[in-house]
Hints:
Helices cover 28% and strands 27% of the residues. It has three helices and seven strands; from the N terminus they run αβββββββαα. The chain has helices at 26-42, 126-138, 149-164; strands at residues 46-48, 58-61, 70-80, 84-89, 99-104, 106-112, 118-124. The N and C termini lie far apart (32 Å).
Amino acid sequence: MPARALVLFPDPRLMRPAAPVDDFGPTLTALADDVRDTLMAASAIGLTAPHIGVAARLMVVRISPDENARVYVNPTVSWASPDTAVHDEGSVSMPGVRERVTRAARVRLSYRGLDGSAHEEEVEGFPAAVIQHEIDQLDGVFWIARLSRLKRDRLVKRFARLKSA
Length: 165
């Protein structure tokens, strides 16, 4: 499947919750392939269906280039550790800007596979930040919402300057 065009900030589709997936057939597999191909073309770590304009709760994550991309359908965080960690974050939908974001250091997530089978896994460190970032996107929470108002305003201005340059 070919890579699709990315939805760019401030498109309102990035701030809308994605609909749960209830059809685990060939259409979902084709969507997962499109999200995966777009992730690879963008050299991204994580990408959701809303990033390509489809309001479905599907995300693809590939933490490092030497591992296979993993597909998560209807993912939710079922538990988050009270301890936190800070990581640099950014988005392919807002290229050229990054900022430090504080999130839970460990999370347990529940999700479905492409065949509808139920799964649960626990992740920590940077992978936990990536999972939380992408689930936020599926919930309609664009990553900059996790920043203070001052940092968010500065980042949006910096992004606007980059776009106009």
